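Margin note from the TA: students keep mixing up input and output lines. Inputs are the sequences; the output is the structure of the whole complex. Example:
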Amino acid sequence: MHIPDGFLSTPVWAAAGAVSVPGVAFFARRAGDAAGDGRIPLMGVMGAFVFAAQMINFPVGIGTSGHLVGGALLAVTLGPAAACMVMTAILAVQALLFQDGGVLALGANVFNMGIAGVVAGYLPYRYWGQTRFRRPAIFLGGFLSVFVSACLAMTQLMLSGVAMPGPVLGVSLGLFAVSAAIEGGITLAVTGALERLNSNWLRSAGKAGNSGMGAILIAAILLASVGALFASALPDGLEKLSEELGIAGRAASLFQTPLADYEASFAGQDWLRKALPGVLGLAAVYLVCVLAGRLISRRALHRS
Amino acid sequence: MHYIVLDRLSRQSSYLHGLDARCKIAALILFLVAVATTLPLGAGAVVGYAFLLAAGVLLARLPPAWMLTRSAAVLPFTMAFATMSVVTGNIQHAVTLVAKSYLSSFAVLLVVASTPLPALLDGFGRLGVPVILVTVIQFLYRYLFVITDEARRMWLAAQLRGSALSRQPRSEKVAAAAGSLAVLFARSLEKAESIHLAMTARGFSGRMPALVHPRATAGDALFLLALAALLWLVRFRLGGT
Amino acid sequence: MSPILEARGLDYTYDDGTAALAGVNFRLFPGETVALLGANGSGKTTFVLRLVGLLEGAGEVVVGGVQLTRKTAALIRSKVGIVFQDSDEQLFMPSVLEDIAFGPRNLGQSQEQALKTARQSLEMIRLSHLADRAPYHLSAGEKRRVALAGVLAMSPEVVILDEPTTFLDPPSLRDLIDLLGRLPQAKILITHDIAFAKALAPRACFFERGRIVAEGKTHDIVRQFQWEL
């Protein structure tokens, strides 16, 4: 689900951008470090592959079909850093050339699909890829990559005040789970076919990791995304609960962004109050962008 | 194929086409932020923003009808959520969603249709987007058509052998689809390797050489200032409360 | 006259142990055009990749007095240009002009200089009007010529063309033959198109299972192996 511009409230898109930009910069550095020279064309062509893969339909049930989204498949073949680059590139091309997803909303979309989706899609394989649970792990990765992204997107929409009646939310969650399961199935089927062609194409998962750690991480991601969804659906209930527990201050800061707080302190000047979060958010995003870029290019210079 | 039209339009020449890509990116962001922060979005503001976009279309000599329909690509998604707002009785919010998403989508299209993608990416790169990401986007766009054609040929070949008519069980159809994706994946990998070989044969050593950088002029700065002033007018005089 | 390019005992073995090249000896003289003939998989493409160090194995290559090593590979690649079989894989930059300028830039030319070189190469292949086009939108013949311009922009002493006639219609093929005939460089042509080989290359080498099993006048080689329809 690609959020277009015009849906997200300023604190939401600015905060998502403020998380995505350093996130992408971090992965860009990782991907750049791991890059043999051949990795750059590889990432580009694999992005084109994911685009093209959407043309191949998988029959799902009565008259419906699904297609590959790709986050988990990219993560288990190229690694999470390169997968993040590829997904970000795909989202950028979709936003610019296909009018699919917004430009200000790119921060949110990249966070949902390019960072959270890729990481969630990779974790199961990372921890259980070498064990006898390899196939369930790949399925779970595909499932999580879509489910987590969809929950996060829904959360951001609801935090921005998009109306979402309870039943619709329930149905959406069900649909998310179904399409996530489809992605899991497709990821499993394609990786299986890939391994038969050439077993080197899947990343070696490394030694069997600490699977307790893996379980905790995955549970945390899942709980966070589903929990955030419900929290955004029931903000009043949550507030009441935290008040009763006496942690109102801390809980609120978890669900509100610092820029949202900003609004309060400029209550007197209306226009300033409305414009400031946007401008500040933008300035912050830009600053982080430039700093990260500088850092990366400096490192690249040192290396060459 | 709208992106072929887009590619052609972006290579025309006009006042807007001639502006520096960074200037247009900055203008786009200003516009999007102005639209996003106009709350509530009054009719005056909508007219004001629409007027600015129309001026842009004129300055770029782009076909208005095509721009209007292409920007509507965002509407199905918006409509779904707008309907929900209507159902819950918040018609104002529904109208705001439609207007904001359509205006924003149109603005993005205006910039993309008046700037060739390479120049646009170069602009993003010079505004601080990591070089590796810009390069990946560039390669993605370059091979999008090549790989999509490959996929289309595979799909066609499968249709010609009657895959749509066959009554195989679903599991076999899924296996066939997975197999063709795996083959497409393999061909993409091969292609990436050959591209790298061809790059190395022409002296590539890991860093893409920087190429045509246009220079920003006083005219670009003037445009940006004028736009900022107009946006300020629309945003704070016509829009909001 | 001494050869511009000489290969002695070139070997190459795939990862799985099959030998793709087994002791190939080859000489190319300045200004000469040689056709490499032979069945698919007989080692022709492997041979030319090996010549510029894109594949590594035993044997030695000397180009213009410089021996191919890992250190000199970049230099050798500036002297020996390859036009690959699939132009789409060779034209990876966003516009024609930028693609042609890619090589000169890598050779260390300044932006302005590289673009100037690129314009000159485009003029040489008479496609100046395509400078700003995206490579994807070109016809097969135009793509091939642009790929050739990208190689020529690096002013190589040897030009290698791998199956340059695939996907070309007769007029494009005629254009290509005309263009290649005017180039002063020594050329190696890998091809299955015998009319094309006869038109440009007086001499031919015949590959079989990773070796050159015969070489001589193109007419004679074609007759000897019945390499025509």
